[in-house]
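Help wanted!
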Amino acid sequence: MSDAFALFGLAPRFALERAALDAAFRAVQAQVHPDKFAHADAVTQRQAVERATEVNEAYQLLKRPVARGAYLLRQAGIEPFDPANTRMSSAFLMQQIEWREQLEAATDVGALEVLENSLSEAARAYEHRLTILIDQDADLVSATETLRELRFIEKLGEEIHAAFDAV
Amino acid sequence: MALLQISEPGLSTAPHEHRLAVGIDLGTTNSLVATVRNGLSVALNDAHGHAILPSVVRYLDAEGHTEVGQTALGTASEDPHNTVISAKRFMGRGLKDLPDLALLPYHFVDTPGMVQVRTVAGPKSPVEISAEILKVLRARAEASMGGDLVGAVITVPAYFDDAQRQATKDAARLAGLNVLRLLNEPTAAAIAYGLDNGSEGVYAVYDLGGGTFDISILRLSRGVFEVLATNGDSALGGDDFDRRIYCWMLEQAGLSVINDHDKSLLIARAREAKERLTDHPETQVTALLTTGQFIDLTLTEAHFNQLTESLVGKTLTPTRKALRDAGLKPTDIQGVVMVGGSTRMPRIQAAVGAFFGQTPLTNLDPDKVVALGAAIQANVLAGNRLGDDWLLLDVVPLSLGLETMGGLVEKIVPRNATLPTARAQEFTTYKDGQTAMSLHVVQGERELVVDCRSLAHFDLRGIPPMVAGAARIRVTFQVDADGLLSVTARETRTGVEAHIEVKPSYGLVDGEITRMLQESNAHAKEDITARQLAELKVDAGRLVDATHTALAEDAALLHPSEQALVMGLLSGLEAALQDNERAAIKYAYDALNRGTADFAARRMDAGVKRVLTGHKLEDF
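Answered by r_m:
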């Protein structure tokens, strides 16, 4: 796949203005989407499907902070989710246990919303830290650990999302 | 070389006739066909001036003659076994999937994949029954527009799974329609509203039809319709409200056993009562049963609301989920579009209004809005509005995945992924020397395979024997712009590959469609040959137009020698079209197709570059 940032004319940085990405995504997709080639021949249509798929996937990759961070680290030759390296700070592990307990105890929408808010607040702080570590300090080792913790937060967020469906 | 013509970007330089294309709303209760005429989307009427065709097919005799629409509906209670109502509820469904068998007056045949209904004309699949409805609409369109259709956009509930979509596409093919696109109903409605009002912002489309419920959250921005999330219930609709009244009638009348004739009669009476309650506080329900018993009941709006309260609630749960998936709150929604005849019920409008804190939009006819939107999309896809600056980005309604060890589902494509999409995942062997792997493709949100819909089984064979865990099998899911799935499995070290278009376990295999087409006697053999030639000529003509346009706009992207090559292939195809000989046209068509592939790719890249450099991002 060609570079996801370049595909949208964006600089390869962790900090990203969501509105700019969304606008570029829509503009680029409008150039390559198969519907724009519905009157064209089969070969062009197939190419359009491939391009449009690539654009969709690149958008997904950049949209979510964890995927975007992992993409930047992988481009720098670091595999952030190497199963051999699962180090997380002990403070984070404690926080993790606390969140899990809160999720298990949450039986109504209100409690889930409280937990969701505290989680998204934490996620914002992590994203801010990653911006500094990757874009300013280029401290990719620390960034990797931070990203792993953010990934945990993201996964827990998905579990909370599923819990909303259940209650 | 001829001088290049200068043209507005996006405008075809080749003169082309208006291509006849329609949008079809194949509904549970009613169906419609619409087209764009003089820039306006209009529903097409039958000879009696009616736009709405009840989705009812009555089989009259062993030869398979049918009556479709109002006349069939009128005689439904006289001939309940041969008159199929709401066939859409059975599309792509097995017998075990049908929840309220006891309430249906049909003799079902439990055939593998999809149920069939035993009629006087023999067993009929929901695909064949739906095709009868589509044939009537196609004939209406051709009569009204005076020519053959280039194609049709057919709408489906957003929450239809792969099997139901495939079945719909099969029905259209069986009716002799070229399917330009399967379009989600709420998205179609949004097109009809959005293009009329030139709106921007996030909209919710609440679509309660006869048998299905969909909720879609869309963002409209600068001509792009982007579906953010969709949810729904493909077995919930106005029919369920009728059934609640029907059950209440049975209870009030003290009936437990009832014959099929009376069942059809009472369900029809229930529906009429529901419709009257739309603008009356109470209504009288009367029926004379074949047993001689006379039923005379009064149903108030308040009691009706009480009977159906849980159904209203069942629509709000998916609505909440869709908002949550989109990461939005009810107050973020700029407007709520109401679609489907069932949204006429005052209780529904009140509940939706209360949920979103605003009065829902009802200014377009909820029965027609889907067909009108589909017609607009059909017009674009047929190539009548080249260069028009709007685009539709739809999503996968239900997650797609594979069965893994222990009957668990591994999700490959998550729900709400934007179409088209492709996702890959690697798997490995779990036994030493394992040479084959069986793949089971499923769709749904649940964790266990048994709770999801099974779409297809296929095997990857010929894996060289290795120790367990050494093989690397990459499985790729590709979902096209119609929302249809194909799956490829590949052992990456040896290149052994297996591929499947997902349709066998539900839907019909291609051979079966061909057989039905032949059986329907719609085309004698010479007709088929003539039709193939005509279709090829349409495709070839399109390619000629497209190539002329491409050369006029972007000849600069080609080296003069490449340009000469393309021009040579182009005149070759034009000459072949003059001679009207199928094999020669096919040959020249394929040659030009191959010869312009790289040119087309360069044009796409150039287009992307233009939008990224021509504007600052804030300008988008």
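OP: Thanks! One thing I noticed: The mean pLDDT of chain B is 85.
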